[in-house]
Amino acid sequence: ISNLPFVYEALPMRVLFGVGTRSSARDEALRLGMSRVLILCGPAHEGVAGEISRELGDLHAGTYAGARMHTPVEVTEQALALARERRCDGIVAIGGGSATGLAKALALRTDLPQIVLPTTYAGSEMTPILGETKGGVKTTQRSAKVLPETVIYDVDLSMDLPVHLSGVSGINAIAHSVEALYARDANPIVAVLALESIRALVNALPAICADPHDRAARTGALYGAWLAGICLGAVGMSLHHKLCHTLGGSFDMPHAETHAVVLPHALAYNAPAIPEVMARLRDALGVDDVPAALYNLNRAIGAPRGLRELGMPEDGIDRCVELAVANPYWNPRPLERAQLHALLTRAYLGDAPS
Ligand code: NAD
User: Per residue in 54-108, pLDDT tens?
Assistant: First the structure.
């Protein structure tokens, strides 16, 4: 056991996990004392939202299907107006991190209880963290108010997540677990969850790409994503997440794809400072070179090669390095300008990590 002494704090949450579990939404709403439920989702999930509204029956008070990535406050205000007009006393959110983010933004303002049904592997449903965008600036805060009361993982809801999104969203989850292993406030419980989640996802993602309807692989990926979400909510993140946050905020890059491209490079950067973590990762994955294995996993799941392909401007490398050095944060290896520049250049071009 390393990281002595450590602090472990479990977050209060109820989780249902299985196939077809979305049929429990009404019971869970009643359990939380909801009588007028607002359903939140993005345009892709209006059909599922209709199905859940029928399950909810007389508890259903309205649906808002305008959730968008990075939780713009204008969208939150529209949903909030509907919640007030319909006198809602609870929220059911269906979707990825965008729908969950909207639910959390409403909970922050109203303290309404939330039930979340995730459809991607982003893991936001497990965290007390909310990122919101106002006037093009994304800010993040932690508040117990935004933590969902109940999360219903239904493997069936993830079955039609398109293959390319499944892969990169799964790597986004692996990134939470990798950074949890070397967090400043790491602890042995979170390490167990992190390694288990990495193993589950590394096995499941190529299988999903080979056959998107492979229910066992979908189950493994959702299980791994759940555990990764717990890790993200439990301990602090460092270089990888900070770089992705800067890239997303500065260049409006897609969330999961950016995480997939950056992860092998961020881990290679930190590797010299975290020999014990690298040994555990090598052991868990059965490989000698973990950053190279993650880079190859990206190739296998068809992730974009580099940040250039995702639309990042080349002078963005300098801007990103300057932002990182100007607002230093804790990282196992100090932030060094030249090395960060080299890391981002490789990620930009799609080169292998080194
Ligand atoms: P998302 O929710 O925007 O979903 C990505 C796309 O996939 C959308 O177009 C969506 O409609 C579609 N989609 C989702 N599930 C689908 C399914 N099952 N079938 C078909 N299409 C589906 O993206 P995301 O990657 O899940 O979440 C990203 C957002 O979440 C970002 O804003 C990010 O900042 C936030 N996030 C927050 C936290 C946190 O702890 N606060 C954690 C992770 C992500």
Answer: 999 999 999 999 999 889 999 999 999 999 999 999 999 999 999 999 999 999 9
Which residue has the CA at smallest separation from atom 28 of ligand 1? 97
Task: Give the nearest ligand 1 atom to 248 CA.
Answer: 34
Name the residue with the closest Cα to ligand 1, atom 21.
161
Helix ranges restricted to H, the chain: 25-31, 46-56, 73-85, 97-110, 155-158, 163-181, 188-210, 215-234, 239-251, 255-270, 275-285, 290-300, 316-326, 337-349
The overall pTM is greater than 0.90 = yes
If one residue of 46, 120, 168 were mutated to test the ligand 1 pocket, choosing by the most ligand atoms within 8 A of its CB, it would be: 120
* Tens-digit pLDDT profile for residues 310-332: 999 999 999 999 988 888 789 99
Residue to mutate, 255, 257, 261, ligand 1, most ligand atoms under 8 Å from C-beta:
255
The pLDDT tens digits for 268-290 are: 999 999 999 999 999 999 999 99
Compute the distance from residue 105 Cα to the ligand 1 centre, in Å: 15
Written in H, E and C, the secondary structure of 8-37 is CCCCCCEEEEECCHHHHHHHHHHHCCCCCE
Which of the listed CATH numbers 3.40.50.1970, 3.40.47.10, 3.30.160.40, 1.10.3720.10 matches domain 14-158? 3.40.50.1970
Domain 163-349 = CATH 1.20.1090.10? yes
Residue 83 Cα to ligand 1 middle (Å):
22
Q: What does the pLDDT read at residue 137?
A: 76
